[in-house]
Specification:
Elements lengths: L1 H5 L4 H15 L1 H19 L8 H8 L7 H17 L7 H13 L4 H13 L4 H10 L11 H17 L3 E4 L2 E4 L7 H10 L3 H16 L9 H21 L3 H20 L17 E8 L4 E8 L4 H12 L6 E5 L8 H4 L13 E6 L2 H7 L13 H6 L2 H10 L6 H9 L6 H12 L5 H4 L5 H14 L16 H13 L10
Parallel strand pairs: 3-6
Antiparallel strand pairs: 1-2, 3-4, 5-6
Helix pairs in contact: 3-5, 3-6, 5-7, 6-7, 7-9, 8-9, 10-11, 12-13, 13-19, 18-19, 20-22
Length: 501
């Protein structure tokens, strides 16, 4: 290291010195031997020490001149990084095996594992060794206890191996998917389904969503099929977990569905093709927002190449509203702007500085009370929620989960309320209620409060033609309404404490 500082401009000179020392003394082998021997020493000393006292014991008994045992491990690894970075030397598979066994498999603490993960993340590794470490080490990890450092290391190798195989493109730290059959994608799903750490789970779900949404221009027209692949994967794992009565995986699959639908509502709707990215930033401009019924006026700063959806998001943030609560109305035509408009840059909509937008909005509470009535309206046919609701097999699979009770049923219900009405269920209730010999047991199921509520909400929808139905299917005030009330009075358990009941 002193030689390198003495001749900082002579990289070749330092490299030759390192390679000569390695050739004569096998320095790298010695360093790995020392790491292995150090771990064996820890094992011998701590064999009878209780796990909860291990860190204190190691810091006390392996401290040398104030240096902790972790610092003693880090020192040779830093030196290894220096040797490899400043020369043409590389590590063998045997070196990686020793490192992995010592600091991951036989580690004594998360700190040791994180030390190894950080070292692998920072090191420039040849492509053939990237594949070896990913396939033979990282993909075989027990993901349940994976740390943030471990996840970052996994992602680093996942990106490297897929970029090298022309399946991903890394543009200024923004990934574009070139091919959907990415290497290690099944391992990423396994990680996301099993990891316990909540922060790692959030990072994993975000990364997974980006892989299914940030696609190249060549795949842009296949977005619906790609979203279907995501849903197929989740629902397949959900079905398997249901058969095995694995409530942990069931819960995680529902989290994935909820997060994916929510992420699309927030960001997916305003995604533009990759060619639209990278425009130079235009100067900030101000738009006037008038909140109907003209009780409040506010301004929002935007860029002209921002999307209209960005304006909606800023309003949501300032007014603490959900996106579904807001309807934007253009000043010129006084018409409600569509979901398609929300994905367009402002300059394409011919709006200019100081233009006024009118905003018709309802409170979050009002929205929650009314959302079941408008499930069928204004849904993007390419959205995950629409795809899920229009797959009868998946919808029935979700409905069956409502029978599980405990904490699973409320989470399933939350997912179902994010979807449009299932057409098959809507048609069945419509046709059944119009027939003279309606089978009320199949329409109104009192054994499941959630199923009962879903049916009643559809019945309410069918009796309110102003909520997206051209005309009322039947009149609730007549004989039909009396039959419904009679059935409910006889079948509902009014002692049931379930809030849905």
């Amino acid at each position: 290291q002193k030689i390198g500082k003495a001749k900082p401009s002579s990289t070749n000179y330092l490299s030759k010195i390192i390679e000569l020392v390695e050739q004569k003394h096998q320095l790298i082998d010695i360093l790995f031997h020392n790491i292995r021997r150090f771990q064996q020493k820890i094992t011998e000393l701590s064999i009878h020490v209780p796990h909860e006292e291990l860190n204190t014991f190691l810091d006390t008994n392996l401290r040398i001149n104030g240096t902790t045992y972790l610092q003693q491990l880090k020192s040779p690894m830093d030196f290894l990084s220096f040797l490899i970075t400043n020369s043409y030397l590389s590590l063998s598979t045997e070196h990686y095996n020793i490192l992995w066994e010592s600091l991951i498999v036989e580690s004594f603490s998360n700190d040791e594992r994180n030390l190894c993960f950080n070292w692998l993340t920072s090191l420039l590794i040849p492509s053939q060794m990237v594949e070896y470490v990913f396939h033979e080490k990282l993909s075989k990890l027990h993901f349940v206890d994976l740390s943030q450092n471990g996840f970052i290391c996994f992602v680093r190798f996942f990106k490297s191996i897929n970029c090298a195989n022309q399946k991903l493109q890394d543009l200024h730290n923004e990934l574009l998917v070139l091919e959907t059959d990415m290497i290690g994608l099944d391992d990423l799903w396994n990680l996301t389904l099993n990891v316990k750490d909540s922060i790692v789970l959030k990072l994993a779900m975000d990364f997974l969503h980006n892989l299914y949404e940030n696609v190249s221009l060549q795949l842009w027209d296949q977005r619906v099929e790609i979203r279907k692949q995501y849903l197929v994967t989740v629902m397949t794992h959900l079905q398997k977990a249901t058969h095995e009565n694995n409530t942990q995986i069931i819960d995680r699959c529902l989290d994935l569905l909820q997060a994916y639908i929510h992420e699309y509502e927030i960001n997916g709707r305003k995604r533009m093709p990759p060619t639209a990215k990278g425009h130079h930033q235009t100067p900030a401009i101000t738009f006037v927002i008038r909140l109907l019924p003209f009780e409040e006026e506010m301004t929002v700063d935007m860029a002209l190449d921002d999307h209209l959806g960005t304006l909606r998001d800023k309003l949501c943030e300032q007014k603490n509203l959900k996106p579904q609560c807001i309807k934007l109305i253009s000043q010129n035509e006084m018409k409600t702007l569509s979901e398609c408009d929300l994905r367009k840059p402002l300059f394409m909509l011919k709006v200019y500085p100081q233009d006024t937008f009118f905003v018709d909005y309802k409170t979050n509470e009002d929205y929650e009370n009314e959302k079941y009535e408008s499930r069928q309206d204004h849904f993007d046919v390419s959205s995950p929620s629409y795809i899920l609701a229009h797959n009868d097999l998946y919808f029935e699979q979700l409905f069956l989960l409502l029978n599980l009770g405990s904490h699973i049923a409320p989470k399933v219900w939350e997912v179902i309320t994010m979807l449009p009405n299932n057409p098959k269920t809507l048609d069945f209730i419509r046709e059944s209620t119009l027939s003279n010999n309606a089978t009320w047991d199949s329409i109104l199921d009192p054994t499941s409060p959630y199923k009962l509520l879903y049916s009643l909400q559809i019945i309410q929808l069918l009796t309110h033609p102003t909520k997206g139905i051209s005309s009322a299917v039947f009149n609730f005030d007549g004989e039909f309404g009396k039959q419904i009330c009679k059935i409910l009075l006889h079948r509902i358990d009014f002692h049931d404490q379930n809030p849905i009941t």
